[in-house]
Amino acid sequence: RVCSMCSGFLPQLTRSPHHRSVLCNDPDMADIPTNIPVDTVKLRVEKTGVRRIPAEAFYYLADLRYLWVTYNAVTTVDPSSFYNLKVLHELRLDGNQLASFPWGALREMPSLRTLDLHNNRLSSVPAEAAPLLVNITYLDLSSNKLTSLPSDLMDIWPPFSGLPRSYNSSHKVVLGLQDNPWYCDCRISKLIELSKMAETLVVLLDQFLACSGPENLAGVLFWKAELDQCIKPTVLTSATKITSPLGSNVLLRCDATGLPTPVLIWTRADGLPVNHTVVQESPGEGIKWSIISLHGILYKDAGEYRCKAKNVAGTAVATITLSVAGEITTPEYPEGVTPKPPMQEGAVSPAQADSALASSAVTTRGPTVPPNATQPMTPTKKRPAIPDGQQRSSARMQQESQDGKPPQDEDSRVSGNDSTSGSQRPVIGSIQVAEENADTVVLVWRAEGTKGSVPLTVVYSPYEDKVKQTLTTEVGKGKVALEGLKPNTKYMACLIVKGGPSRRDQCVTFSTAEPAAEQPQSRLLMVVGGVACALALPLIVLLLCKIAGLCCRTRRDPREAELSKETYVKFETLSLKPRTSTTTQHHELWARRPPHDSERLLLCSRSSIDSQMTYKSESSRSEFLC
Which chain positions lie within coiled-coil regions (predicted)? Predict the structure, then answer.
């Protein structure tokens, strides 16, 4: 049957009159026709000028099972285009110009098993599409512009889904991923691993997938590609089960490793939101830890907490089960007193304990009775044991209830007038390391909003150590000393005020100093001192030798000292010839001595250093020069 309002229809009836197939292939058709018979089971819109699939374009075709809009010029698909196609089994949009696909529209097609997006312009598949493709058995994404696939998408198929290989082995999944510019890194590590498997429930249309990047892997087939620095995360928790008293503070910690560095996410098994303070830090590449702080835990905080570590190579989950200890007793009445009908609000059930603890008060109401009449005891709530062992007496609670005042818990009494005035809990800030050495560190802080001795717990441990150490002090002291620490070790310390909020700035990291004998400065000084001594010692010895030599020279014979003063003497020219005149005895003495004796006497008596006798001639007289 041909619809008169739509040209270009070439209807083809199947053997059964109730199964209608319609083909539209008019090249001049610009819009999806609206006069298609409502009992159509298979609709084919091929090789037309259609550029857009509008909203609810097929909503009246409730029996449509096969929809082919192939080899057109479609660039846009409205998210609600496939509304009311509950029984659609096959959707083919290949041969168009789609740059994106409304993956959320798959919710309108719960029976869909075949999705063909071959030969389009898709550049990515979002991770949110993974759970919507679980039932797809034929997915063709070939001949697009895909460079990677989300790890979550590969996790929905075996062997990454966790199902054994023997599970429903007849249920195969066919994937068409060829002719895409794949960038071979950790993001598609699972796809590369899948291509290397000989037996798997996932069948690739083309086994010879190749890398387009990075440069060192360009053109390399998947089954030959080797990826570096690609490690699936692993998660470790500080404990798997924790039981803590009602109203106490609890820290849950998990540590993860993997490459690239994983992301940590806290969730609850019951689906409730995690509305607690979470602190995370990555001390190095491939390592990350996270701590969730629960202050004043209530019954609603009990349950399973999941720490999920995720990177492009995979996902890992660890679970911590938290149990809250504490009971709420039922009302007690004295003997002989019959309880009246429940007209007062005093009995607290476990379901109401959270709000009762949060307000730290139990309101008691009862009917008005005469002063002399016997008034029945109103039900009271016993406060569960708290960590420091302090308990409230039931007599005091009863007295406060009779006085019309709400009973206060221990935290309220500790804080004094601060809690009754409605001021905020103390807040710790400006945490600093005031002093540190090899085994001791002094922490100082500034407290705001406190007037009394509010308990303060210091939780500290080595940076990667799972064993925590605690130290209790008071907020008002402003400082605390952590002793017995390991030298040359990185530590982390968190300050937690009882009943106060926990924030990231209440934690501080520090490193202890090295022992004095091992400090680099000491080693340097020892080396420099040794070199200086080796150089200075010979100089000192040489100087001492010089001094000793000078001292020895000063201790010479006195005669030599006296003669040294006469070293330079002026001699006169003496004649050795005998004189005739006898003026004095002295001249006669020289005249009578032989010349050689005169010479010897003259030289020896003056001790000249340099003496010589020159003879000018035989006729001239001799001269002695000094």
Answer: none
Beta strand ranges found along 437-581 (DSSP E): 441-448, 455-462, 469-474, 479-482, 490-497, 507-511
> What is this structure's pTM?
0.47
Per-position DSSP letters for 99-129, written without gaps between them: S---GGGGGG-TT--EEE--SS------GGG
Query: What residues does 323 pair with on adjacent strands?
Result: 243
Tokens of 330: 């039922």
Integer distance in angstroms from the first to the last C-alpha of the chain? 157
- Banded pLDDT at 616 (limits 50, 70, 90): very low
Is residue 80 a contact partner of residue 55, using CB atoms and an 8 Å limit?
A: yes
Q: How many CA atoms lie within 13 A of 79 on its CB side?
A: 3
- 373-394 pLDDT, tens per residue? 333 333 333 334 434 433 333 3
Contact criterion met (CB below 8 Å) for 349 and 270: no
Amino acid at 315: T
Q: Give the C-alpha separation, 510 to 302, whole Å.
A: 33
**In b/e form, how buried is each residue of 141-150, taking b as 16+ CB within 10 angstroms?**
bbbbebbbbb
Both tokens of 62, joined, read 């409730």
Q: Is the dihedral of CA 416, 419, 424, 428 positive or negative?
A: positive
The per-residue pLDDT for 592 is 47
Q: How far is Cα 1 from Cα 11, in angstroms, rounded to an integer?
A: 6
Q: What is the mean pLDDT of residues 553-557?
A: 60
Tell me how many degrees the CA angle 471-474-476 measures, rounded to the nearest 5: 145
- pLDDT band, residue 454 (cuts 50/70/90): confident
* HEC readout, 131-183: HHHCCCCEEECCCCCCCCCCHHHHCCCCCCCCCCCCCCCCCCEEEECCCCCEE
Contacts of 571 (CB under 8 A, 6+ apart): 602, 606, 624, 625, 626
Measured over the CA atoms of residue 341, residue 346, residue 352 and residue 353, the dihedral's sign is negative
- The two tokens of residue 334 are 């004295």
Which of helix, strand or coil describes residue 349?
coil
How many angstroms from the chain centroid is the CA of residue 91? 45
pLDDT at residue number 407: 41
Extract the tokens encoding 348: 């607290």
Gap between the Cα atoms of 219 and 208, Å rounded: 11
Q: Is 223 exposed, middle or buried (0-12, 13-18, 19+ CB in 10 A)?
A: middle
The residues with which 587 forms a beta bridge, in sequence order, are none
Contact between 149 and 126 under an 8 Å Cβ cutoff? The reply is: no
> For residue 262, which amino acid is it?
P
On whether the CB atoms of residues 242 and 223 are closer than 8 A, the answer is no
Strands of 287-294's sheet in order across: 231-237, 250-259, 287-294, 277-284
Nearest to 362 by CA among 379, 338, 387: 379
